[in-house]
Automatic annotation (TrEMBL):
Residues 118-174 form the Autophagy protein ATG5 alpha-helical bundle region domain. May play an important role in the apoptotic process, possibly within the modified cytoskeleton. Its expression is a relatively late event in the apoptotic process, occurring downstream of caspase activity. Plays a crucial role in IFN-gamma-induced autophagic cell death by interacting with FADD. Conjugated with ATG12. Forms a conjugate with ATG12. Part of the minor complex composed of 4 sets of ATG12-ATG5 and ATG16L1 (400 kDa); this complex interacts with ATG3 leading to disruption of ATG7 interaction and promotion of ATG8-like proteins lipidation. Forms an 800-kDa complex composed of ATG12-ATG5 and ATG16L2. The ATG12-ATG5 conjugate interacts with RAB33A; this interaction is bridged by ATG16L1 and promotes ATG12-ATG5-ATG16L1 complex recruitment to phagophores. Interacts with TECPR1; the interaction is direct and does not take place when ATG16L1 is associated with the ATG5-ATG12 conjugate. Belongs to the ATG5 family. This is Autophagy protein 5. It comes from Equus przewalskii (Przewalski's horse). Its main location: membrane. It is a peripheral membrane protein. Keywords: Autophagy, Isopeptide bond, Membrane, Ubl conjugation. It is found in: Preautophagosomal structure membrane. The gene is ATG5. It comes from the Eukaryota.
Amino acid sequence: MTDDKDVLRDVWFGRIPTCFTLYQDEITEREAEPYYLLLPRVSYLTLVTDKVKKHFQKVMRQEDISEIWFEYEGTPLKWHYPIGLLFDLLASSSALPWNITVHFKSFPEKDLLHCPSKDAVEAHFMSCVKEADALKHKSQVINEMQKKDHKQLWMGLQNDRFDQFWAINRKLMEYPAEENGFRYIPFRIYQTTTERPFIQKLFRPVAADGQLHTLGDLLREVCPSALAPEDGEKKNQVMIHGIEPMLETPLQWLSEHLSYPDNFLHISIIPQPTD
């Protein structure tokens, strides 16, 4: 793995200023003040919103509280998507802070999975890491790790410990010198304009002739509608972690440096904002 440690740190410590407001129809005993928080992009809502939950429960009666869920401008927020992905996909063109509405009733069964505890987030996270390693190394790296290594990955993410997480995660980012990259790149491409949750296909980082594939190569093959026609204007932004990487960037480098902790590149295709 090429060691661009600063990039890894910048990605890990990315934060989104957020204002949580209780939904107007929730029953409270006194007015609920909004709650402000810097949300870590690489984490999940369920892991970082204990304080939000406590803050609003203080003004509510126990019988009016059921499972907490969050929504932005009418769209329920999926707890199993990383926070940075949710923001890029739904709110990247809006002003900060990100205004999230908190609900304690009328859980949207059709839109969201229930999240009974942090164990559910851990199970989802580890299954993504295992799937990514199946693509990258035929599962050899993750299977050679001990249970405590898996736990260290999870605890590093849960407790926001960069060094603890990367001490293990760097093993998942290595590959044999003679191969120039992973077997396949773990990626998911998301669009708000389609019902399909995401696009995920097998795609190699290195072409048959030894050339490194780029982000542009990936999009041309699996999501050509994201790219501007050669003579036309740009209609979409291609976003990872709130930035638009150059389309000439090698996919292998992106996978090593801009993947989320679950080891996937989560790529958002969003309509170009009109000023």
